[in-house]
Specification:
This protein is of the alpha/beta class. It folds into three domains: about 250 residues, Rossmann fold (3-Layer(aba) Sandwich), CATH 3.40.50.300; about 170 residues, Nucleotidyltransferase, domain 5 (2-Layer Sandwich); about 35 residues, no CATH class. The protein is built from 18 helices and 15 strands. The strands form two sheets. The chain has an eight-stranded mixed beta sheet with strand order 3-4-5-2-6-7-1-8. The protein has a seven-stranded mixed beta sheet with strand order 9-15-12-11-10-13-14. The chain starts with a helix and ends with a helix.
């Protein structure tokens, strides 16, 4: 069968036209779509989240969507009641925004050639102090570049029709950005690899049911394995062999989960790396009546308006194991009075007899109020470095566990899982951790059990060591007396007894 020359000419023209569009309107025609990309590109949900591994195209597809919405007026009646005028695009810093704009937006994605000045697709960029400030499209939409490093107060002005954020947004900016699109019934987008470990986004992407946030949002957790085939069925460069090679290059299994599979895993700079939810969280059961009760109270307040927090722990008479069995944390942004905190403490304590309780010495009013009510509190040891080290030691050696019987103890679990070293204390979510530190530093722990193989009975319970057996661990009785004497001397120094 002979193909007519005019048919060949039409095909050649179509190919030339396709290549021309791919070159000059790359945001629409430059790349094939993965199925998840198409879903995100076409999503009209008010909130949109993608958490993904590195270098899978999450940033590129968000840029493409931002340009498409800014340059396609036929979409606008379906998205907004009024003609859109202002978009925001946020990066971690203005320097990052400038580099990304020049290397990715301009070179790879923005309209080019004759479309650079086209009535629909045309645009011009504006710089301030050598940094990208905005893009003004010929359709009348202006896209302004903002940064996470700005103060939240700097994000307070503006009526915005759509917001796009690249990488994990600091939580303190979220509510302000949401308010920017409220009047327009606008849209919020975030594409990120989970590196900050903020609980609000963990709950958004990982939780289901009552603990899930943004339940009506578009959400995708994207793995490299989701990028092996384009939507048209053709294979991508991400072969199984290549992905496995990338997995081998990751330093730890958690890095594989985060970088390859796009899971919400916190691996960097954790304050409590020894805490293991599988090992250190236990099902609640009644505690022996012989165990001692200690408590810690964080009075809250401060520059960030931190909520108050209370933690109760039960400790074995041998001081070799303990359980967090009861705690409470106030509502964020709601300051409670000293009397409110004391009444909550008494409610939680009930009929329990305390061995000791410590309070945050920043709460002078709390001490005055509690003293007048006949409640005795010791000043908390506020050496955070020591308290952090102690808690890590206790969890690492299974001396401390947490009961998971209610939402309040689960709040402590989440704080321990995601709290990181450094950063602004006023923005930290470690209120229950502080109360726990105050409680555990009251306990005269017996660390001699660490590294010692302990015998169990037929039911798997530890067999209590007799005094004779414990004495036998030492070489001579004099060494035992020396150790006891040293303990007494240190105790005397602590209580300032001559």
């Amino acid at each position: 069968m002979t193909v007519q020359p005019e048919v060949l000419q039409r095909k050649a023209k179509l190919l030339r036209d396709k290549a021309y569009l791919q070159e000059n309107l790359p945001h629409l025609y430059g790349w094939k779509f993965y199925p998840w990309m198409r879903d995100f590109f076409e999503s009209t949900n008010r909130d949109n989240f993608i958490v993904a591994g590195n270098q899978l195209g999450k940033s590129s597809i968000q840029i493409r969507k931002a340009i498409h919405w800014a340059t396609e007026p036929t979409l606008w009646p379906k998205l907004w009641r009024y003609k859109p005028t202002q978009f925001w695009y946020l990066y971690p810093t203005q320097d990052v925004a400038t580099i990304e704009f020049e290397e990715k937006w301009v070179k790879e994605i923005m309209p080019k050639g004759e479309f650079k000045d086209h009535p629909q697709y045309g645009w011009r960029a504006v710089y301030r102090q050598s940094k990208i400030f905005s893009i003004h499209f010929n359709t009348g939409v202006s896209l302004y570049f903002k940064s996470y490093s700005q103060r939240t107060s700097d994000l307070q002005s503006g009526t915005v029709y759509s917001i796009f954020t690249d990488e994990e947004l600091p939580e303190e900016h979220l509510s302000e950005l949401q308010s920017r699109v409220r009047a327009t019934a606008g849209y919020f987008h975030m594409v990120f690899t989970a590196t900050l470990g903020q609980d609000i986004f963990r709950r958004t992407m990982e939780e289901k049911g009552k603990d899930e946030l943004f339940q009506g949002a578009f959400k995708r957790c994207v793995s490299m394995y989701d990028c092996q085939e384009y939507e048209d069925g053709t294979p991508s460069p991400w072969t199984t062999e290549r992905i496995q090679l990338e997995e081998q290059r990751c330093a730890t299994p958690n890095e594989v989960k985060k970088r390859i599979h796009g899971k919400f895993v916190v691996t960097d700079n954790l304050a409590y790396p020894s805490f293991n939810i599988l090992r250190n969280v236990k099902v609640h059961h009644p505690l022996p009546k012989t165990w001692l009760i200690y408590a810690g109270v964080d009075v809250g307040g401060g520059g960030g308006g931190h909520p108050a927090a209370i933690v109760f722990i039960s400790v074995s008479p041998e001081f070799d194991k303990a359980r967090v069995f009861r705690c409470w944390k106030g509502e964020k942004g709601v300051l409670t009075s000293s009397l409110d905190i004391l009444n909550k403490f008494k409610e939680l304590r009930g009929n329990l007899h305390l061995a000791a309780a410590a309070y945050d010495t920043a709460g002078k009013d709390f001490y005055i109020v509690s003293s007048r009510c006949g409640e005795v509190f010791l000043p908390a040891d506020k050496n955070a470095e020591y308290g952090c080290s102690l808690i890590n030691t206790l969890f690492k050696n299974d001396l401390l566990s947490i009961y998971n019987h209610d939402d309040e103890t689960n709040k402590l679990v989440k704080e321990l899982m995601y709290h990181r070293l450094g950063g602004d204390k006023n923005k930290s979510h470690d209120d229950l951790i502080d109360a726990l530190r105050f409680a555990v530093t009251l306990v005269p722990w017996d660390f001699s059990v660490i590294g010692v193989e302990r015998k169990r009975d037929d039911e798997g319970k530890y067999i209590k060591q007799s005094t004779k057996d414990r004495m036998a661990q030492f070489q001579t009785p004099n060494e035992v007396l020396d150790i006891i004497s040293e303990d007494i001397r240190e105790a005397n120094e602590y209580y300032d007894i001559e």
